[in-house]
Structures are given as C-alpha cells and as structure tokens.
User: Fold this.
Amino acid sequence: MKRRTLAALAALLLAVTVGLSGCELSLERLTNGGAVPAPSAEYTGIQDGFRYTKTTLTGQEQYLYDQLLAGLKDQAETIDGLYPDNDMIQKAIDAILRKKEAGACHGFLIMDMDHFKEINDTCGHAVGDKVLSTFGTLLQEQFRDQDIAGRIGGDEFVVLVHDIGSRRTMENRVQELLKKIRMIQIPELEGRNLTVSIGVAFAPEDGDSFMELYCCADSALYQTKRGGRNGYSIYEKTMN
Assistant:
C-alpha cells in the first residue's frame, strides 16, 4: 500500500480537484456531503462551485466516489496499516452509505480487543503496538478492498462490510474472524490468546450514517462485554 504524510492527505482532501471529461469537482465538497449538481448538457462555466464544460455527466458520481476512497486509503503511516483516524473512517463509510444502493445490505462492526490495557501494562507498549499491527494485518486479509476497516482509537476498530448480502452471511464472517483471532500467536504474550468483543449492526435497517450505525453496534458491543467478552452480539432495538 502506498503511503502519504498527513499533510499530503489533507491537501488531497481540501485542495485537489478531480478531472472527468472536462468536469472538475472538489473532493472537499464530496466528503462534506455536497450533492453533485446537474447542469444542462450545453452548460459551460462554473455553477454551484463546480466547473463544467460541454460533456455528459454519466458515471460522474461513481468516479468521484472511487477517487474519494482511493485518496483515503492512500493514507499516512499507522501502526496497524488501516485508516488512520476516526474522521477519515467516518467520511469513507458515509460515502458508501450515501450511495443508497438498491437492495444492498451492509454490515457494520465495532471491535474491542479484550484486556488490551493489561497487555500494555504487563508486556509493555512495544508489545501492545505489535498486537495492534498483527490485528490490523489480519483485518486487511479478512476483508475486501471495497470494505472499510480502521482503528478509531486505542484498541477499538470498526469495519463496514460492503453489501454483505444477508445477516446470516455476516454472522458467518464474524464467527470466522473470531476463530482467526484466537489463532494469532505472538511470542511475547507467552501463550496468551488474543480475543475480541464485537458488536454488529446493519445498514440500512439500523441506520444510514456512520454515527447511527456506530451507536447501534456500540450497544451490541456492550451486550457482548456483559456476556463475558470473546464473542459477538447483533444489535436489537430492545438494547436501547
């Protein structure tokens, strides 16, 4: 994966424009939720902050969506190799959710590493960083390019699984992920197994924005922790 400094990434999001058959639109407008206006086919000039020439706009939104995700994934150095901060993760996930693909079912996961503070305290922060890096690598291996995986702080991770198909398929994926996590071996942990607690929500059933899904999945995560950790719970409205 190519890397950029945070300054370069900020410049990409805030200043760079993308050209498409004579049409230039700012990624800043897209990431801030700006709708793509539709001028007449013969319009030439600037309208609503966008620059147009005589061109068809077919495929324009898909192109910009792809550019946004590519720009966010071409990210700064991080310990775990995932999206580097909450703001980027939220923008990337909201970009997918705004598409409102007909019939699509997206899975949203929140994952907390169990007893991570104890690992840091007893084994040292270097070992803690190794745990985060190993877990980040596993997430990259287990999910697809069209999925969004990132660490939003400390030992908390989120994943949006794009168009998973069904709740049953999502459960199967989560169960397989839990199994893979338990198989991770880090010599410095001296035989201690890694485990995680997971909360699961679905879009659009439980929400159609990052924050709505986060709140629902967080309620499910709390249920997992109350049940003894090392597992997963799927959000239900009775959890509120």
Summary: Residues 5 and 76 are 5 Å apart (CA to CA).
